[in-house]
């Protein structure tokens, strides 16, 4: 078998009676889940051809993951249509994806029909009643290839049209075969899934569990505004592994939920998506001192992550940067300067570039943007070596460890100087009463706008920044917010913040 189903088959054969996937409504053993996915796959064979997409419009739950597997059994691939997205956004995604079928739940059927009137729609409930068809599934799997698409996740695009990032089975297999043993994930673990299924952080949750024979505990979406109930879920399920977005971890510390109850079964916390505020890290370490903390880095285009840093067991200085570390096995990560020359000198900034099997197949139905982002390695003139240019800037320290600097597109020119917005944000975060900070730049008016949460007074914050930053980096305004607006992936929504400045919210 040349796809991720080999993980499911192995865990089913080894641990048929062990819990495989659960949420707040259902629990499945590996034996139950294996046959459920095969019944769904058998039902999908009537609708989906080899290498064709299945749109999954379902709530975040254990059954949704079963549909993902069913799509692969049927020889196709899946794309999660997040039910929280605006209808117009979903329409854009479906227009790009052109799915053979959309799978939804009975409770969402009318809504799905209204959103996707031109699409064929079937319910999960109908599919789970299908009879298992071993011959049909075997025929589909005989024609499967490891480079077949596994999933397509859609992200924002600079043109306003969502980009579908197509990731193949081989890329996921290659990454997870390194990821799982590196962090010691095994069959005794319970992986608490925080990320929505259209966000690639969830890929590590789903397939780490299937590979290791561990239990995937799908955290209900409704719990995230309720930190104490979220902590209860982690404690009650015996969660051992949290592979979470930084913003989700900050939600817990921001509401002091660890003072309410400590999830003492947790052994490892791996995070990504944004720079981890040192205050949040310190809060976790105070309550969970024996946990392994890992800083992960990598965009969706390289299948989850390409570098990692296991953090040392020590306190970090307030102005100290956290490393993003070194490349995962079988991934080549290097820096190129503006002239496409290799960066080797510690401290010199360069764009992070990645090559290796873990690279995505490209942008779905978008050869132009694929060719722009996935290019020939300029350092190699002897054979075709595809690389992905991340647009992220980083530097090496003296030991060869990588440190994230910021996005190219967060680098602005202000008062004749090149400025990294991340540096202004880091300076603001050094103020004790600031919990989160984000800086935007109004290029038209040449103004820097700082948004922050916490109890710090605006005047005190601006005075502190005046003391620590040169004039060309000092924000023109500071806006105190109750909370930061977040996008669907849990990252700070910079577009929403920029819109606030246009409404005059900074006055």
Polypeptide structure, described:
The protein is built from 17 helices and 26 strands. The chain is of the alpha/beta class and 507 residues long. The chain folds into two domains: 5-310, Rossmann fold, CATH 3.40.50.12780; 415-502, 2-Layer Sandwich (GMP Synthetase, Chain A, domain 3). The strands form six sheets. It has a nine-stranded mixed beta sheet. Strands 16, 17, 19, 20 and 21 form a five-stranded antiparallel beta sheet that branches. Strands 4-3-5-6 form a four-stranded parallel beta sheet, with helices on both faces. Strand 20 and strand 21 form a beta hairpin. Helix 1 packs parallel to helix 9 and helix 8 (169-182) crosses helix 9 (201-212). The mean pLDDT is 94.
Which features would summarize this protein structure in a list?
507 residues; alpha/beta; Rossmann fold; GMP Synthetase, Chain A, domain 3; nine-stranded mixed sheet; five-stranded antiparallel sheet; 26 strands; 26% strand
Strand order of the largest sheet: 2-1-10-9-11-12-13-14-15
Mean pLDDT over the full residue set: 94
CATH architecture type of the largest domain: 3-Layer(aba) Sandwich
Strand content: 25-35%
Shape: globular
Oligomer: single chain
User: Which radius of gyration do the C-alpha atoms yield?
Assistant: 23 Å
Number of helices: 17
Derived structural class: alpha/beta
| pLDDT < 50 runs, ≥5 residues | none
Highest CATH level, the class of the largest domain: Alpha Beta
Q: Please identify which CATH superfamily of the largest domain we are dealing with.
A: ANL, N-terminal domain
CATH level-3 fold name of the largest domain:
Rossmann fold
Percent helix range? 25-40%
Total strands? 26
- C-alpha end-to-end distance: 61 Å
Strand count, sense and barrel status of the largest sheet are: 9 strands, mixed
| Total individual domains | 2
């Amino acid at each position: 078998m040349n796809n991720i189903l080999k993980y499911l088959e192995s865990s089913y054969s080894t641990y048929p009676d062990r819990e495989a996937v659960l949420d707040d409504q259902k629990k499945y053993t590996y034996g139950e889940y294996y046959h459920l996915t095969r019944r769904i796959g058998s039902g999908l064979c009537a609708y989906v051809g080899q290498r064709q997409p299945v749109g999954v419009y379902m709530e975040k739950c254990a059954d949704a993951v079963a549909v993902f597997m069913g799509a692969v059994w049927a020889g196709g691939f899946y794309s999660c249509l997040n039910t929280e997205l605006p209808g117009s956004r979903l329409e854009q995604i479906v227009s790009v994806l052109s799915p053979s079928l959309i799978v939804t739940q009975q409770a969402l059927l009318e809504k799905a029909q209204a959103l996707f009137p031109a699409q064929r729609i079937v319910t999960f409930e109908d599919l789970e009643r299908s009879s298992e068809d071993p011959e049909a599934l075997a025929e589909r799997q005989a024609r499967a290839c490891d480079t077949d698409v596994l999933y397509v996740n859609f992200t924002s695009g600079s043109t306003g049209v969502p980009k579908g990032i197509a990731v193949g089975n081989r890329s996921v297999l290659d990454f997870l075969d390194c990821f799982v043993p590196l962090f010691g994930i095994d069959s005794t673990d319970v992986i608490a899934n925080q990320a929505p299924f259209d966000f690639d952080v969830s890929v590590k949750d789903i397939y780490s569990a299937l590979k290791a024979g561990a239990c995937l505990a799908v955290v209900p979406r409704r719990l995230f505004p309720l930190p104490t109930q979220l902590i209860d879920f982690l404690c009650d399920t015996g969660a051992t592994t949290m592979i979470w977005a930084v913003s989700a971890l900050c939600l817990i510390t921001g509401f002091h939920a660890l003072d309410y109850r400590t999830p003492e079964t947790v052994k490892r916390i791996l995070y990504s998506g944004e720079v981890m505020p040192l205050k949040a890290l310190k809060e976790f370490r105070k309550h969970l001192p024996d946990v392994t903390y890992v800083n992960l880095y990598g965009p969706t285009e390289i299948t989850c992550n390409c570098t990692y840093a296991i953090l040392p067991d020590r306190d970090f200085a307030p102005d100290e940067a956290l490393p993003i570390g070194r490349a995962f096995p079988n991934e080549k990560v290097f820096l190129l300067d503006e002239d496409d020359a290799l960066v080797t000198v510690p401290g010199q900034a360069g764009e992070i570039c990645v090559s290796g099997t873990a690279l995505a197949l490209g942008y779905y139905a978008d050869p132009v943007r694929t060719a722009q982002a996935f290019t020939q390695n300029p350092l190699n003139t002897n054979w075709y070596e595809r690389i992905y240019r991340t647009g992220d800037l980083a530097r090496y320290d003296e030991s060869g460890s990588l440190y994230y600097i910021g996005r190219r597109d967060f680098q602005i020119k202000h008062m004749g100087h090149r400025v990294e917005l991340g540096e202004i944000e880091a300076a603001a975060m050094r103020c004790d009463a600031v919990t989160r900070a984000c800086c935007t730049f109004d290029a038209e008016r040449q103004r820097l706008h700082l948004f922050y949460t916490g109890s710090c007074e605006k005047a005190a914050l601006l005075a502190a920044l005046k003391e620590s930053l040169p004039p060309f980096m000092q924000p023109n305004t500071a806006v105190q917010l109750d909370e930061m607006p977040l996008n669907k992936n849990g990252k700070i929504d910079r577009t929403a913040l920029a819109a606030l400045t246009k409404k005059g919210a900074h006055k």
